[in-house]
Amino acid sequence: MTAKKTVYLLLGSNLGDRLQIMRAARKLIGMEIGHIVSASSIYETAPWGVLDQPSFLNQVLEVATEMTPEEVLRIILDIEHELGRIRYERWGARVIDIDILYFESLVVDTARLTIPHPRLHERRFTLAPLSEVAPNFIHPILNKNSEQLLAECIDTSEVKLLS
User: Fold this and answer.
1) Domain that residue 120 falls in
2) Is 94 an annotated catalytic residue?
3) CA pair distance 83, 25, nearest whole angstrom
4) Which one from 18, 52, 94, 112 is the annotated catalytic residue?
5) How many domains is the chain built from?
6) Separation of alpha carbons 18 and 94, rounded Å
7) Alpha-carbon span 76 to 100, nearest angstrom
8) 40-65: string of b/e by CB count within 10 Å (b at 16+)?
9) 99 catalytic residue (yes or no)
10) Active-site hit among 18, 99, 123, 124
11) CATH number of the domain within which 115 lies
12) What is the predicted pLDDT for the residue at 16?
């Protein structure tokens, strides 16, 4: 039996029934990638990159998996496709986006995959929910934990708990 590894995923949605789409993504992740150990609250967040679009819902999941990073990437791309994701423009509006933030403390830099996520430390919408589920997780390159990265983040975009 393969040992379980921890992967942190960021879910984002700003088109359609955002809550229902995120529920469907969580269900598929639990069925196809591994057990969801913990999930952050859901946050409503301002768009990042392309500002002229609806606000997002974001959530971070901690998942225990037996897969490799490449296998997880393949499955999340399949899940995004199954839920209706069409890639029009970088940072544009989307039904669902699933990003690998961390995979254990691995550092991966290939043509298809970069772990840790290369911009996670620049994005309040990522760091707020990440700090909720993994406040003490150390970024393997920056050597700072999630709470430190959030405290130092210069992104001032609005991030609020969904009521």
Assistant:
1) 5-161
2) yes
3) 8
4) 94
5) 1
6) 10
7) 9
8) bebbbbbbbeeeebebbbbbbbbbeb
9) yes
10) 99
11) 3.30.70.560
12) 92
